[in-house]
Design brief:
Length: about 270
């Protein structure tokens, strides 16, 4: 094989010339890696956040971020969305309602470099919002249905194109109440994948209470917080939860199920 120095780019991933070592021998080969690029979110002409993300579904990412971070309360407060690839990264520009923009300026938050940490750039502990709005009625949170969880766990791998190709991507899937996967989004950041999904729900005008989220990652606090803020009643994850994720889910009335497999799961909020 003749190897070149330059990359071969596919959607969401890049093929690189590598040397593969196995059983004492080596050979030139190609390896596909997930793309990670700076994405600037600009609200009413002012840059608010720069995060590292896989450059796919960026307008959905921006809408989901605006909703799940409480920048806007509803889709109707976002008037326009534009995106471009510039300066070695991407920029997504949103025009939002003036009251929401004024409140955003007051918060003075900077979230630069947010790939694996949900508090990077927060200026003080007092600015960290860990008080979720309750979403459930007086009967408490919904319960995870074993058959629905098993179906979601069985169907998710077929929707993880980027993960199968690179081994380096999280997935957030929207499942019907029966567990069937309706849509899935991938990203190098688990919270980015969820924001893309939340943005898709908002742009499609779908009811967040009409299904649940199934994720390939652990259940971290920011995932539970985003689900609580956007009215998603159930968060199911393949890996373990953190104590803060459990606490937020319980206080918000979000059902949380982790270690989800075809054969069972652990429910933390029943």
């Amino acid at each position: 094989m003749s190897m070149q120095d330059h990359d071969r780019t596919e959607q969401g991933m890049t093929s690189l010339a590598v040397t593969r070592h196995l059983d004492g021998s080596s050979r030139p080969d190609w390896d596909r890696v997930a793309e990670e690029t700076p994405v600037a979110l600009v609200f009413n002409g002012i840059s608010h956040a720069v995060m590292m993300a896989t450059p796919l579904d960026l307008e959905r990412l921006a809408v989901g971020f605006a909703l799940s971070e409480g920048i806007v309360a509803r889709r109707a407060e976002i008037f326009d969305i534009e995106s471009d690839f510039v300066c070695g990264g991407a920029e997504v520009r949103l025009e939002i309602a003036q009251p929401a923009f004024l409140a955003l300026k007051d918060r003075r938050r900077s979230l630069a470099g947010r790939t694996g940490c949900g508090v990077c750039g927060i200026e003080s502990l007092a600015m960290l919002d860990l008080s979720p709005e309750p979403i459930a009625g007086p009967t408490g949170p919904v319960s995870a249905d074993p058959a629905a969880i098993a179906r979601a766990a069985a169907e998710l791998p077929a929707h993880q194109r980027l993960m199968q190709a690179t081994g380096c991507a999280h997935a957030a899937a929207w499942c019907g109440r029966d567990g069937g996967v309706r849509m899935a989004f991938e990203d190098v950041g688990r919270h980015n994948a969820l924001d893309k999904l939340i943005g898709w729900l908002a742009l499609e005008g779908m009811d967040p209470a009409d299904g649940f989220v199934f994720m390939s990652s652990r259940a971290s606090y920011e995932l539970a917080r985003k689900c609580a803020r956007t009215g998603i009643p159930l968060l199911a994850t393949i890996s373990a939860p953190t104590s803060l994720a459990v606490d937020i889910a319980r206080r918000a009335g979000v059902a949380l199920a982790s270690f989800c497999r075809r054969t069972g799961f652990v429910e933390y909020t029943a």
